[in-house]
Amino acid sequence: MPTKEIDLYIDYKSPYAYLAVEPAWDLERDFDVSLNWMPYTLDIPDYLGSAKVDDQGNIIEDNRTPHNWRRVRYSYMDVRRYANLRGLTIRGTQKIWDSSLAGLGLLFAKEQGVVRAFNDIVYERFWRRELDIEDIAVVEKVLREAGADTAGFRDYAEGVGRADHDRIRAEAEERGVFGVPTFVIDKEIYWGREHLALIRMRLSEMGLARDNAADPLAISHAWRPTNAAQ
Questions:
Q1: What are phi and psi of 36, to 5 degrees?
Q2: CATH class of 4-223
Q3: pTM of the predicted model, to two decimals?
Q4: Residue 27 contacts by C-beta under 8 Å, 6 or more apart in sequence?
Q5: Separation of alpha carbons 82 and 194, rounded Å
Q6: Mind listing the pLDDT tens digit for each residue in 54-87?
Q7: How far is 96 from 73, CA to CA, in rounded Å?
Q8: What are the domain boundaries of the chain?
C-alpha cells in the first residue's frame, strides 16, 4: 500500500487544473503515494468578475473591469501555449459555470473507483464545449461511461453529496487552500502545476521514489513554470 497520501484539489472549470491532471497521475506511477482527488469549486466572479458570450463569441453580459479582462485573456493565451504542446484542446468558456455538480460527480466516482476515467471524460469534453456540467443527467451519463454504477447518484447529489462538497470546500479553506490545482502533502500546500517539479523533489527526499522514477529535477513540458493565475 502507498505510504503517503496527497490531497489534490481541482475544479473542472479551471484549465490550469486540466493541465495538471496527467502529470499528477505520474506521481502515483513514480512514487509510493496515492492521490486523494477532491473538488474545490472556485468562485470566479469574486476575483475576476463575470461575463457571458453568445455562440459567435459576442459579449452579451459583462461586469468585468479592463483589468479583469486583461487577466482573463492572458490566462487563456497562457494555457493554450501548454495545451498545444500536449495536443489538448482548450476553448474559452461562454459563461461562468457552476461546476459543483461535476465536483459531486468526482466524489461519487471516487467511491466507485473510476476517478481517472471520469476526470478524462469531463475535462476533455468540457474544454471542447461538448459537456454541460450543470446538467445532472449529463454528469450521470459520464459516470456510467466511466464505469460507475449510478444507482443512487441523484439522491447523493441532492443530499449527502452536496453536504460533503460544501464541507470539503470549507475544510480546504481552513487549511489555506484558495485556488486549483492545489497539492497538500502533510501540511505543506503547493498551489499550481508549476510546483510539480518541487513536489517530485520533496517526495524523493522523503524516500518515496520508486526504482523506475524519473529524475525529480527533470522538467517535463507538461508542467513547465508559469506565473499566471491558476
A1: -105, 95
A2: alpha beta
A3: 0.82
A4: 6, 33, 35, 196, 199, 200, 203
A5: 12
A6: 555 555 555 656 666 576 676 767 777 877 788 8
A7: 15
A8: 4-223
